[in-house]
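Pilot study result, target chain (423 residues):
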Amino acid sequence: MTAILFISLIVCFGLGMPIAFSLGVSSVATLGFGSSLPLTLAAQRLFAGTDSFPLMAIPFFMLAGALMENGGISRRLVDFAHSLVGGIYGGLGMVAVLAAMFFAGISGAAAADTAAVGAVSIPAMIRKGYKKGFAAAIQAAGGSIGVIIPPSIPMIIYGVVGGVSIGKMFLGGFVPGALIGGGLMVASYFLCKKAGYKKDHASSLKEVWRYFADALWALLMPGIILGGILGGVFTPTEAAVVAAVYGLVVGLFIYKELSFKDLPKIFAKAAVSTSTVMLLIGTASIFGWILTAEQVPQSVAAYLTTLTDSPMVLYALVLVMLLVVGTFMETSASLIILTPVFLPVVKQFGIDPVHFGVVMVTALAIGMLTPPLGICLFISCNIARIQLTQIVGFVWPLLGIMIVILLLITFIPGLVMFVPNMF
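Predicted structure:
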């Protein structure tokens, strides 16, 4: 049964079938040819996998991100970031990263983060003489932080699948996201100085204050979301609803860059994004149920425990697997499939599930910068109008920084757990 499952999955991947359909087809093939169980089980698991209250946060965070993207939020965040760091060597690259970090506190999705900020920052860098490959690479790297800094859709999925506190996951993402963002900004400074890119003009304190005031309504959203969750005012799911309503009100009545005639298109865009993720969750639920029924997680756990009795060595092995998987598989699908496999193992070794979840999301986020999947790379290339081959050379140093920080947060758990333990 397991052999049919994985062979059919590999065949589907080889045919270029989308991941959601690959998981569904391989699961149905396994039930149909390798099991006496009725095929109706697939339909039951498809709906059961998406029938979860915490998962309702996904469509609302998608909608909040779409509203903010079209309501002038991303432009204001880029302007504010530019006023802070624009006057430094590599300042426009830093702006791309810093604005992406701000937007990450709104969207919860790396693709939305890259597209919203990149539409403003990449053309600005190119106009100032930055190479297109570098402009696209630094924005793609900054956009990947969108799933690490809260709110984060992958963290919601991990929390649901693993039965882990989503609020604590959100808190655990702060320090890793800040470290990666800081590392990328330092890299931008040295790479741009070496390349001879000119500095932009430095903003005065008065200009910084003006841009801050203009972006204030956007900057308040992450505080409202996390403050409400930590204060017990609302759950993460309810926080997503608050974020969507907040984005609607700000876009329509404060910034006034949204109109009611724009809403159908925005709602449709959010619905398409949500349906893609939810279909993936549903089909992955069938796939995961078969793995559990065949006791694959227990077999993996038994095998890994024969290799080592050291938590650090185990972590190193798991990290290598996650980095490889992230290169070929979408983050949400990877979490749904691998969380039931790895989480019981790390618990046996005394590793905190919240720490492991943040490490897992961060490792898979790195996969957004690596071909052949590399969704952030493709979005940035599309904005910059370049081929993938023109960006790869600029990505390697940025990938190196992200991997170093991944190792730091993995083997120094306090970097992740410091903030959650405060609450």
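One observation from the pilot: The chain has a mean pLDDT of 86. A full batch analysis is planned for the follow-on phase.
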